[in-house]
């Protein structure tokens, strides 16, 4: 009886185990923005990985744009498949340059800067803000920028739970002025299929500015009623939007 019981137990375990999705033929590389690190992608990462994607997360230091691009290119080189390159916020600056890589199939901008040649975060931020919209409440500390700690929760992630945003405010990564002031000279969205998610409740990058950048890039655009931290507040929708850039997807 023991062999039969063992066989039945094995069948029961196999039946109970969740099906593992077959690996997709596209890899996804996630590039975070300023003031945070790659841990903000956790929920989005899990959803995409469970769907069968190889998902790689860049941990760029956000001190200089050139170093952040180089780190992103290093991660792209590790991918097993052609890459969907995703950038949130300042990460859009990074993917605009790093996306000029033969391994990158398409670009996905999430509430992100999408610069043209000769533009930097500084030059893009000079645009006037329409009535009712907001710019990031930044403070300078030496050669770095930070979000005013008291205003971080409502400015960066108003639709994320307060305990999380309090910690995020305390754990901010300094944003180097070289990253903010360096101008882009390679513009991948001019040659790669591009997708852009506009966050209509954003208090860091004004929604009007996002729409303008998305339109000139020729991106496929969707709007989400979300704060700037859309991957935290709407991870399923973000994952679905990223998957929409996978032209090989069949499900």
Description:
The chain is α/β, with parallel strands linked by helices and 251 residues long. It has a single domain, classed as 3-Layer(aba) Sandwich (Rossmann fold), CATH 3.40.50.1820. The protein has 11 helices and 9 strands. A 6-stranded parallel sheet has the order 2-1-3-4-8-9, with helices on both faces. Strands 5-6-7 form a 3-stranded antiparallel sheet. Helix 2 (42-50) crosses helix 11 and helix 3 packs across helix 4. It is globular, with a radius of gyration of 20 Å. It starts with a helix and ends in an 8-residue tail after the last helix. The model is unreliable at 7-17 (pLDDT under 50).
Quick description:
This protein is of the alpha/beta class and 251 residues long.
The coarse silhouette is globular
Please tell me how large the radius of gyration is.
20 Å
- What proportion of the residues is helical, as a percent range? 25-40%
Helix-and-strand structural type: alpha/beta
The total count of strands amounts to: 9
Number of domains: 1
Name of the CATH class:
Alpha Beta
Question: Which homologous superfamily in CATH is the superfamily?
Answer: Alpha/Beta hydrolase fold, catalytic domain
Helix-strand pattern:
HEHEHEHEHEEHHEHEHEHH
Major sheet summary line: 6 strands, parallel
Q: Approximately how much beta-strand content do the residues carry?
A: 15-25%
User: At CATH's second level, what is the architecture?
Assistant: 3-Layer(aba) Sandwich
CATH topology value:
Rossmann fold
Strand order of the largest sheet: 2-1-3-4-8-9
Poorly predicted ranges (pLDDT <50, ≥5 residues)?
7-17
């Amino acid at each position: 009886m023991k062999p039969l019981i063992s066989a039945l137990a094995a069948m029961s375990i196999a039946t109970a185990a969740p099906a593992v999705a077959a690996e997709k033929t596209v890899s996804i590389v996630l590039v975070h923005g300023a003031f945070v690190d790659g841990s903000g992608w956790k929920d989005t990462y899990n959803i995409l990985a469970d769907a069968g994607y190889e998902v790689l997360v860049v941990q760029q230091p956000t001190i200089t744009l050139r170093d952040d691009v180089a780190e992103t290119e290093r991660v792209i080189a590790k991918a097993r498949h052609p890459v969907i390159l995703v950038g949130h916020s300042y990460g859009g600056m990074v993917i605009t340059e790093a996306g000029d890589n033969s391994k990158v199939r398409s670009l996905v901008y999430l509430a992100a800067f999408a610069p043209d040649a000769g533009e930097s975060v500084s030059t893009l931020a000079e645009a006037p803000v329409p009535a009712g919209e907001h710019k990031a409440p930044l403070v300078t500390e030496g050669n770095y920028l930070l979000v005013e700690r008291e205003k971080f929760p409502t400015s960066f992630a108003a639709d994320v739970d307060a305990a999380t945003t309090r910690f995020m405010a305390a754990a901010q990564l300094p944003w180097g002025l070289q990253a903010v002031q360096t101008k882009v000279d390679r513009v991948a969205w001019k040659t790669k299929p591009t997708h852009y998610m506009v966050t209509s409740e954003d208090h860091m990058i004004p929604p009007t500015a996002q729409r303008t950048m998305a339109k000139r890039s020729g991106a496929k655009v969707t709007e989400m009623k979300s704060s700037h931290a859309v991957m935290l507040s709407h991870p399923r929708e973000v994952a679905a939007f990223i998957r929409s850039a996978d032209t090989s997807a069949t499900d």
